[in-house]
Task: inverse folding
């Protein structure tokens, strides 16, 4: 019997998962892997409550609250938590708790903890990568504004909202005047800086509820929710004036033309954008002005 017990102890001590025995809320035994995983010696842990190992005290309280109820039903408890090693490094563990005797929790609890830090790190890296890819898919790389694809999605959503709740909105198309001549005269790098500066002016001078997107080339599109034609016109005129009075770091004034269109019930995206584009075409006849459809 003694030989069998020593063999069992050897198996537990050489296990590649953490095994901890808790009785009356205190740690009574742990295997060697637990010492390696947490960085503590056994005598630094035995006799203490497990709470100090949790990174977040709320997690310890959650375990204390949820575990007894599940174990009394004959179930096991499983969850993932961040833990704090002795050297203050954080590790993630998947915890499985079983009762030695479900009908009497005073007999003690067996905790098995698997180190899943590598998996959690991989998940976090994947999350960051997905966020980056999503941002690249919806953002213009030069200006940091929403791109054409994202703006089309937003307009479709606004159309759905307007039809369902009988709300209004408008779009404003902006085109930089004589931009090709600016590029030819001062170079593409200077032209890019002008576009970035214009994006900055349009964003900061618009309302928080508006969305400014780079539509393509030197064109921008502004989505203005809950905005009728006359209010969109006032806003466009204000933006036009701000651009006209901005120093863009080149020897000449930079201006833009604006064409706006209010949404009409039953219109589709293509029709609405075409109306704004037609209005912009009229504005380009005179330059540095605002025209409505």
Result:
């Amino acid at each position: 019997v003694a030989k069998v017990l020593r063999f069992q102890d050897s198996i537990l001590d050489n296990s590649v998962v953490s095994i901890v025995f808790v009785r009356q809320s205190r740690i009574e035994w742990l295997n060697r892997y637990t010492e390696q995983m947490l960085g503590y010696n056994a005598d630094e842990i035995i006799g203490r409550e497990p709470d100090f190992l949790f990174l977040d005290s709320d997690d310890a309280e959650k375990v204390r609250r949820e575990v007894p109820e599940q174990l009394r039903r004959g179930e096991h408890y499983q969850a993932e938590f961040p833990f704090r090693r002795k050297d203050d490094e954080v590790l993630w563990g998947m915890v499985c708790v079983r009762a030695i005797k479900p009908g009497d929790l005073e007999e003690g609890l067996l905790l098995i903890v698997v180190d899943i830090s590598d998996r959690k790190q991989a998940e976090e890296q994947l999350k960051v990568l997905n966020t980056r890819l999503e941002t690249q898919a919806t953002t213009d790389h030069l200006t940091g504004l929403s791109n054409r694809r994202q703006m089309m999605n937003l307009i479709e959503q606004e159309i759905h909202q307007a039809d369902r709740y009988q709300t209004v909105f408008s779009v404003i198309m902006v085109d930089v005047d004589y931009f090709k001549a600016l590029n030819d005269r001062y170079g593409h790098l200077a032209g890019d800086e002008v576009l970035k500066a214009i994006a900055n002016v349009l964003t900061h001078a618009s309302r928080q509820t508006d969305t400014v997107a780079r539509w393509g080339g030197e064109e921008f599109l502004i989505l203005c929710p809950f905005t009728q034609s006359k209010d969109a016109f006032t806003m466009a005129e204000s933006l036009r004036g701000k651009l006209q009075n901005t120093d863009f770091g080149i020897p000449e004034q930079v201006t833009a033309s604006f064409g706006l269109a209010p949404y009409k019930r039953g219109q589709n995206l293509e029709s609405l954008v075409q109306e704004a584009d037609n209005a912009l075409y009229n504005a380009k006849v005179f330059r540095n002005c605002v025209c409505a459809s």
DSSP finds ten helices and ten strands in the chain. The radius of gyration is 32 Å.
